[in-house]
User: Which sequence fits this backbone?
């Protein structure tokens, strides 16, 4: 497969976005598949389609809109990226992490990364929300060695995790804590891969997020990752999993998800 490399001028992108925004957000959210509805609740929203950002790649996956939304949750300014790029679409890591580099250029300090993921933990049924306290890179791109869980607080902010648990409690949303594993996709994993992920300590598996966590952590942002577990990962139950199930579950828990993310944004502002 040909790798689509984009060598963008980040400062030009930053300027283009800054010109369109009237707010100065400190917090940004990457919205995962099926979780884009959160953008509807933003006040004074300014929508910036990726097509209006010079050099920005365009989105190709169902359930991803492809725009930035700048606005407010109550009085708290926030910037959302609705729609992301995946390695399985043929982009390189620099391109899939462009939103994070753009956020950094815009002065974002707190990054909430969200995704839809499969559950590799029988105790976390579909519809569970999970905050990451660690991640695994199960793409085997650089080495055939077994990956180890990375729990560093540079990548998983302890303050944001604590805040997320408090908000979940007050909003009466069930929020588990666990380890997110990144698999390449685009096919869902095989039951054997899911078993390996369980043995390595993974609780959720998805096809994104880890490169964003890594870069944001290296850039010094405080990072919080929230997964919407939309299905049991392959092999955990007999029923085959489908993209429809993923979208349906994401839709079903979008209310809980929105209350949680909203509360966290407000908590950061306090
Ligand atoms: N595997 C990988 N990515 C996913 C899944 C899954 O089971 N569900 C939603 N995104």
Assistant:
């Amino acid at each position: 497969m040909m790798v689509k490399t984009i060598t963008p001028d980040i400062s030009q992108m930053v300027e283009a976005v800054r010109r369109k925004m009237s707010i100065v957000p400190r917090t940004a959210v990457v919205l995962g598949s099926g979780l884009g509805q959160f953008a509807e609740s933003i006040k004074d929203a300014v929508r910036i389609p990726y097509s209006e950002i010079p050099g920005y790649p365009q989105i190709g996956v169902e359930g991803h809109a492809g725009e930035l939304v700048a606005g407010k949750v109550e009085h708290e300014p926030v910037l959302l990226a609705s729609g992301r790029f995946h390695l399985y679409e043929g982009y390189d890591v620099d391109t899939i992490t462009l939103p994070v580099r753009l956020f950094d250029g815009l002065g974002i300090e707190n990054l909430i990364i969200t995704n839809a993921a499969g559950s590799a933990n029988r105790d976390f049924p579909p519809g569970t929300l999970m905050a990451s306290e660690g991640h695994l890179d199960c793409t085997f791109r650089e080495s055939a060695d077994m990956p180890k869980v990375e729990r560093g607080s540079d990548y998983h902010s302890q303050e944001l995790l604590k805040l997320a648990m408090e908000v979940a409690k007050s909003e009466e949303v069930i929020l588990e804590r666990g380890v997110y594993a990144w698999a390449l996709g685009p096919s869902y994993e095989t039951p054997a891969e899911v078993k390996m992920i369980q043995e390595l300590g993974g609780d959720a598996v998805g096809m994104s997020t880890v490169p964003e966590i890594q870069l944001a952590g290296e850039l010094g942002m405080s990072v919080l990752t929230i997964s919407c577990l939309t299905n049991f990962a392959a092999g955990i139950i007999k029923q085959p999993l489908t993209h429809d199930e993923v979208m349906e579950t994401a839709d079903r828990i979008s209310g809980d998800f929105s209350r949680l993310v909203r509360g966290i944004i407000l908590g950061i502002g306090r």
